[in-house]
Amino acid sequence: MAQISPPPEGYPKLASRMGHSPQFAIFRRFAALNARNLLYLQAELTALEKRLEDYAATDEKSSNADRAVYSRDWETLKSSLDEGATNFGHDKKQWQTFLDIRAKLKEYNEALFLQSELTKLEQPNPQDVQKLTTWMGSTAMGNVFLLGPDSDIWQDQNTREDLVALKATKVDDSLTRWLMESAAQRWHYWIGHYFRVSVLLILDLSHVSLGIEADCGNQKPEANQDPAFVTYSDEGIAGFQRTVTTLLSCLLPVLAIVILYFVPELPKRLGILAGLVAGFAGCLLWFTNAGGGDIFAATAA
After folding, report:
1. Lowest mean pLDDT: which of 6-20, 67-81, 192-206?
2. Which of 43, 68, 138, 210 is 20 to 30 A from 290, alpha carbon to alpha carbon?
3. Contact indicator for 202, 131 with CB cutoff of 8 Å
């Protein structure tokens, strides 16, 4: 099988990275420009609408029988554009203006709809932006240095709020976030690098990729994988999180009963109970994505 040559440095290599890791497909929304475009289209349509109303009022008062029925006979209005129609007193301005409005409305509606869809795209995880810029700027990794005015889009603080990700990284709870963003990197640093090629921590909904500059040894990455990255499936992390959560949910009530059983004094029991409730609330906050109302209801119960 023919080997696929690596993409050239620059846009091709950056596009390859974004295609392989969709959480890195980070682009500008151009929200202000899109809003300005909508405003200009809206202004054009408003002017055309006013012009159409003026032409319609003029035709309505015309002494020409055909023009006078434009507002009630569509075919007569449409025929005003026929060749030679002006010789019979027709005026094509009203229908021509409406055709201009029709085309402009299509452009406006499409832009409005696309803008509404753009607003649904989520902002990228700040760590993903940082990792992308680190990868681009490292000669050992991406070595992607763009030369045009778009070269600092991902680093410019003025455009950070305008960035969107095609598949933003989502982490529902604090434990999973810690496992993916901190524990996974430590795991790779101490143990995982013996088994995998690597370079920089990257998060994805479907996998966790790690990257710590390291000697790859005799290991070779897959043909379609960036040699600067190693991918860890998030199934193991999610499974570990579920295991911890399940064990705690089973053990905490039993632990509370056992502790209270060996404490005869009522004041101490109440103090311990308060501490256990606080610990339970902390576990809900740390191990799940429960909101304040859910935590309050669970602890009250």
Report:
1. 192-206
2. 210
3. yes
Side chain identity at residue 63, one-letter code: S
pLDDT tens figures, 128-144: 888 888 888 877 777 78
Do 23 and 155 fall within a single domain?
A: yes
CA nearest neighbour of 192 among 209, 173, 175: 209
Please, which residues bridge with residue 177 across strands? none
- Are 197 and 155 within one domain? no
Q: Which token pair is 81?
A: 């554009």
Separation between Cα atoms, residue 86 and residue 77, nearest integer Å:
12
Whether 1 maps to a domain, the answer reads: no
Joined tokens for residue 257: 């009963």
160 part of a folded domain: yes
What tokens were used for 7?
């993409």
Q: Domains in the chain: how many in total? A: 4
Structure confidence at residue 92 (pLDDT):
86
CB count within 10 Å of CB 28 equals 14
